[in-house]
From TrEMBL:
Limits of the Thiamine pyrophosphate enzyme TPP-binding domain: 409-563
The protein's name in its UniProt record: Thiamine pyrophosphate-binding protein
Domain of life of the source: Bacteria
Domain Thiamine pyrophosphate enzyme N-terminal TPP-binding: 8-117
Similarity annotation: Belongs to the TPP enzyme family.
UniProt domain Thiamine pyrophosphate enzyme central: residue ranges: 210-336
Pfam family, one: TPP_enzyme_M
4Fe-4S as UniProt keyword: no
SUPFAM superfamilies named among the record's database cross-references: DHS-like NAD/FAD-binding domain, Thiamin diphosphate-binding fold (THDP-binding)
InterPro entries in the record: DHS-like_NAD/FAD-binding_dom, THDP-binding, Thiamin_PyroP_enz_cen_dom, Thiamin_PyroP_enz_TPP-bd_dom, TPP_enz, TPP_enzyme_TPP-bd
Phylogenetic placement of the source organism: Bacteria, Bacillati, Actinomycetota, Actinomycetes, Kitasatosporales
Organism whose genome encodes this protein: Streptomyces cinnabarinus
Keyword terms, alphabetized: Thiamine pyrophosphate
Amino acid sequence: MTDTEHLDGGDAAVAALTAAGADHIFCASGSEWAPVWESLARHHRDGLPCPGYLDLTHETVAVGMATGYGLITRRPQGVLLHAAPGLLQGSMAVHGALLAGVPMVVASSESATYGDGPGKDPGGQWYRNLSIVGGPHGVASPFTKWSNEAASVHTLPTMITRAAELAWRAPAGPAYLNIPLEILLEEWDGREAKPVVPPGSTHSSPEEADAVAQLIREAVNPVIVTETSGRESGGWEALVAFAEAWNIPVVEPDSAVCGNFPRTHPLHAGSDIGPWMDEADLILLVNCRAPFYPPSRRPSKARIVVIDEVPQRPHITYQVLFADRYLEGNVANSLRQLAKRAKDLDAAAVTARRAAQEERHAGERAAIAAAEAKAAEAAGGIDPVMVAATLRRLLDGEDAIVVDETITHSRIVKRHLRNDAPDSYFYVQGGLGQGMAVALGVKLAARERPVVLTIGDGAFTYNPVIPSYDASRAYELPLLIVVFNNRVYKSMNLNHRRFYPDGAAAGTGEWLGTDLHRLPRLASFAEPFGMHTETVDAPDALAPALERALKAVAEGTTAVVDVLVTR
């Protein structure tokens, strides 16, 4: 630092994010962040450690990339948005991060003086149109874990530390901090920021684990249901060991938002909890937020054990678990404790349920094979099953990660991709329009692995496509984007038909709010960025097109394959 340079709030923010262990600052540029940019420039000039900086051109891209990065690393990153409007623009993605359980520190700004105070002029835009009544921290409160204002440069570093620590603890999610521009510009004394350490773990007691183990030992027909255990560090491996030790089938319902258990494993029992509602005598809900729908649909005879670090999720408006017993604390640890207790089992009961599950699993394998054979023989175009099955074959052995933002095709994607490794499948949370950014963040965290985004044409049009392609090219983050393009908002159309099967639209064929035929060729948006593009409408052309696209991705270029599917 030169003799004429002074530390300010920008330096305080960078120091605190560095101490928090943030690898990156994801920034959708706003004029208030000049102090942070100046601090980063000094760090770069002087060779000082600081987080990497990503200059992004849309708030959804900034938050979504931090979400994707956090899905892989499970550590909080920094996100800078512009004022209240930038926070509002990024709010859907912040809410998605909350639902996805991804820690991050999100910050935006306001003015505290509107030009009437001493010091540097913040600019008239704050007085005229950037500020919001009550401050942006009030706006952020409903879709973050914690929301507050940094009222002094002297407390700013500790407030950032606190936000990171709160974001990291269960249930992980975004914390928000409003940092007024005047605080960023204020001189700072340079006090050292305390490094943030990983959260300590909480464990269920041995006595609690013993009681649950006894319930499992007494059960004849138990089942595990999980939505997000694979999102926990070590959760995938611990669930596999637990299920194998007790020979218990595992159901991943349609509400599962990540890969939790190998779909190729003989104990994988598909995605339908329905058959178990009357048959199971013990249901083990492992990181399962909302297992029953409607919520009042109670299993007829099963006792219910909930295994979850925070079973009652505070961000879920209405949650019904019907728990008979809770096993709280770190999920992977709880599962490992239970696996060790798999002793003195009823051999006849285990043999019977193993045989039943083998039959069930064989039936599912046969059904998948039959569906794929039917799709391959179908006339008149490309069935979406064929797209998912072709992707599975091409990605076999590649250690790929699939980020999914399909709606009507999501069951097909999960069922036919059959992911069998940790951190290999994520479903985008919250509203549509975040998939590209989340996939880019995943790629940033796992540069050595191929990343595939499966997305519907409707979801594609919600995404900030141009800013996403810009980030892909600027930061060398090649993706394979596969569009399941049926030229319609199918889920909306299906609901219209379900609610009004004999209505006016059914009689006249006037289905409003669903037609996407008018959109241009979706792959063409990538052409100005020099990316690989394909549009496919014939079954024979599908595999060669995807092979060319994967080759382009391996060579460092994002590839977009727009597949015109039949349904």
